[in-house]
Each structure stands twice: as C-alpha cells, then as structure tokens.
Amino acid sequence: PNSFESLNSNFRKTCYSISDGRVFIIRNSEIIENEFYAHPNTEVWTVSFLDPEGNLLATGADDCSLSLWDLRTSCIDEPIMKNKKSHSMGVTCIQKSNRNHQFWSGSYDETLRFWDFRMINSPIYEHKTNGGIWRINQFEDYLGMAQCYYGLEYLKLDPNLNVEKQYISVPNDSESQFSHNSIVYGIDTFRMNNTLFGFSCSFYDKTALIFQILEE
After folding, report:
1. Where are the WD repeats (predicted)?
2. 198 and 117 in one domain?
3. Are residues 160 and 84 located together in one domain of the fold?
C-alpha cells in the first residue's frame, strides 16, 4: 500500500491506497467494505478518515488533487468535493486536526495547508516550509513534519491552530547528532513521564531517531 490508516487501535475500520489509483476500505481487518478508483492512472499518496465514524474520507494524489469522499453512498463514482488548483505538486499527506472539520495537507511543493472540509475551494491558510512534506503529526500544540530531503521541522501552534512560530528545525546532514542522512519519511510525537519526545525515521539509511523536545 502507498498509504494506510486505521480509524482506531482495534482496526475496526481501515483504509489504504495502492499505486494504480484504487482505495480500499476494510472493516474488522478482513471484510472489504468498499473498493473504488479514487484517482485513476495516478499514485494515491495519502488517505485519511476525517470523522470519527469513518464516513468521510480524504485522498491526495500525485496529480495535485485533494478529494473528499462520502463512504455512505452505495456507488462511489465521484468525490463530493475536489480541489486541483491549490497544490502545485503531488499531495503527499493528510492529517486531521483535533478540531472538528479541520485538517492539514502536505505536498512536494513545500507548503503546509490548513483546511475546513466543509469547503475546500481554498485553504484557511498556507505556510511555507523548508522541504517537501511527506508526513504531518499534530500532538497538543505542536505540529511535526517529515520533510523528505530537507529533514524535520516542528511548528508551535496557537489556540486557533494558526502557526505561532517555528519551534524546531533539523536539516539532514547537519552538525546535530540527531540529524538524518537520508530522506525523512516518518514523524511522531509522544509524552513519557510528562516529558515530550519526538520520533522520526528516514529511508535509505534505515535510521530511526528518538529525541527530547525541550518545552518553553
């Protein structure tokens, strides 16, 4: 699969995409509930449920398109909404925020975009990054990004989820002992004993890093 997401830790409902443009919805880890061509003849880089029930699905593809799908319909032929003008390169990741109706998208075009899924004609805001974004992770008021050839970056968010400032930036091959030497493809954030940690991984050098994030 190009992209995979589970709605909860029990794998009650999952979705994944493959390279021919198809998306699969799986229930209870084994039953194919839906299968459809979301982006025919192009790579679907990312899939994500946008609601707790798993009825609304977002997909992003190499053709620069961001699409929303209503999985309650009996025949899924067309997205309920589609945006093919905002991203200038492939849509590589979608991350639901901790607020209703809102999510982020990342792209090879080195721009983070924040959306309201009730209207995706244009994003709420755009934020320029240092590299193409492959993964986004929100944890509390921090937003981590795996930025492929650049490295990794964390943003500090205000209470309305606007970007307050750049908090951490670690380019690949930097002097920091925590830098990667290859394409950064994964990022996550967690707390342990009230201490904030980040986790990142890179591709060709097969490296995973765990690092402490010092809070103000």
Report:
1. 50-73, 84-118
2. no
3. no
Please say whether the beta carbons of 49 and 7 come within 8 A: yes
What SS3 class is residue 181?
A: coil
pTM (2 d.p.) = 0.89
Strands 163-171, 151-157: pairing kind: antiparallel
* pLDDT tops 90 at residue 106: yes
Span 184-200, average pLDDT: 94
How far apart are the C-alpha atoms of 70 and 48, rounded to whole Å? 12
How far apart (Å, rounded) are the C-alpha atoms in residues 42 and 62? 6
- What is the rounded CA–CA span in Å between residue 96 and residue 135? 12
- Lowest average pLDDT, out of 9-13, 35-39, 78-82, 171-175, goes to 9-13
Total number of domains in the chain: 2
Domain boundary among 81, 105, 128: 128
- Residue 3 contacts residue 16 (beta carbons within 8 Å): yes
- The CA–CA distances, whole Å, from 9 to 1, 6, 12, 50, 168 equal 19, 7, 8, 16, 29
Domain that holds residue 192: 141-215
C-alpha span between 145 and 191 (Å, rounded): 17
Residue 136 lies in a domain: no
